[in-house]
């Protein structure tokens, strides 16, 4: 009997106390800065978005590809103006863009403007790209200008990743859900800019997407080549 009592006492001595999940309301317990760091949005911005989205949140469980080729374009203020998460990782960047509504609108003239792309894209009257193996000083100046302009999309992606850390590595969800997560993050990033949210300055070592040494698989269209030549001669000669 004494042995049993000692065993019970021993079990009670090593038994770990149960720890219950903290059910405290973070909206009441966190100060403004703690709230911002945890949820990556200010309290004011969070509730503004919540009111806009509460009637339109949807879910999906369909499966698609094992990886995604995400196409993005932004304006000079780093707001995203186009996103595509429709295609698998094996799809070429140029094909992703050519199948987009943005491409169709620019091609038809419904939308006006100029995009700056890298060597993965086909030059068009509305899309300028670097001239690889530039033949003269004017072409070099043009290419430098295009590359400097393209830095804006790298800055936009970097700001997106700094606000939402999970995008800096693999998004470990089924592709269809990953597509929704990425699209939502892009929309929230645009909302942050509209609401003048303070940017996050976390240094996550964003990759530098450089064109040096990239083989150009996309011959420019005749009109695209003519447009690039015109710009080189008019503004860089």
From TrEMBL:
Keyword Disulfide bond recorded: no
Keywords, ordered alphabetically: Metal-binding
Q: Where is the composition biased (Acidic residues)?
A: 200-215
Its domain of life? Eukaryota
- The protein's name: DDE Tnp4 domain-containing protein
Keyword Cytoplasm attributed: no
- InterPro entries linked: HARBI1_dom
Q: Which parts of this chain are annotated as the region Disordered? A: 199-226
In the UniProt record, the signal sequence range is: none
Q: Which organism is it from?
A: Caenorhabditis brenneri (Nematode worm)
Checking Pfam families in the record gives: DDE_Tnp_4 (PF13359)
Cofactor list:
a divalent metal cation
